[in-house]
Every structure is written in C-alpha cells, then in structure tokens.
Amino acid sequence: MTMDYLNAFWVGGLICVLVQILMEKTKLLPGRIMVLLVCTGAVLSVFQLYEPFQEFAGAGASVPLLGYGNILMKGVKEAVDEQGFIGLFLGGFKSGAAGCAAALVFAYLASLVFKPKMKG
Predict the structure, then answer these.
(1) Would you say 96 and 72 are in contact if contact means Cβ atoms under 8 Å apart?
(2) Contact yes or no for 67/95 (Cβ under 8 A)
(3) Tens digits of per-residue pLDDT, 33-87?
(4) 113: which of 2, 25, 79, 96 is 20 to 30 A away, CA to CA?
C-alpha cells in the first residue's frame, strides 16, 4: 500500500515537472498545455496504454488532465459501440459531464469565499 502512494507521488510529480518545463522553456500558453495534456491522455487511451499506466501510478495518473483525456476517450468508445457514428459526438459529453460540473460548482463556491479581484 505504501508503494501505491509512492508511485502516485512520483508519477504525478513528474507530470507536473514536465508541464512546468513546457511552461518555462516554450512559448506555449497554459491553456494550450492543458489541451496537450488532455489530448495526450486520449491518445494513450486509444492505444490502450493508459490503463496499465493508471494501474501503476494510481491517482498520480488519474487526477491530472491526462486522466480527463482518458475519461473522455472511454466515453466516446462506449458511445460509439452503443450508438454508432453519433456516439463520436455524444460520448465525451456524457463521460466528462460530472467532472466539468464539479469544477464549475467548486470554482463558483471558491469565488464566493475568497472574493476574487481582477489583475491590473
């Protein structure tokens, strides 16, 4: 069990280090890096590499945006199997809805508690 925590810590930390290097050494904007992470998770899912990676790293792989890309791709695969072509468009919405809704609700609650200010 201790090894699970250790693997989650170092894999999640390595992902964060790689993202920080991208932010510091390239001219990529944070939003583009986030999209890159989601797309990377989806591509790893397509080639069935994400599941073994997630089993090894646990939350270190499932919590970052790579995990969100995997969730979206799994939803698309399931929807295509059930509904055919239209599943390409519906699957990602169905599988990612809970995460997006939670992010919006918690961001709103945080804005009520912490009184955000505009940068200036």
Answers:
(1) yes
(2) no
(3) 999 999 999 999 999 999 999 999 888 888 778 888 888 898 889 889 998 988 8
(4) 96
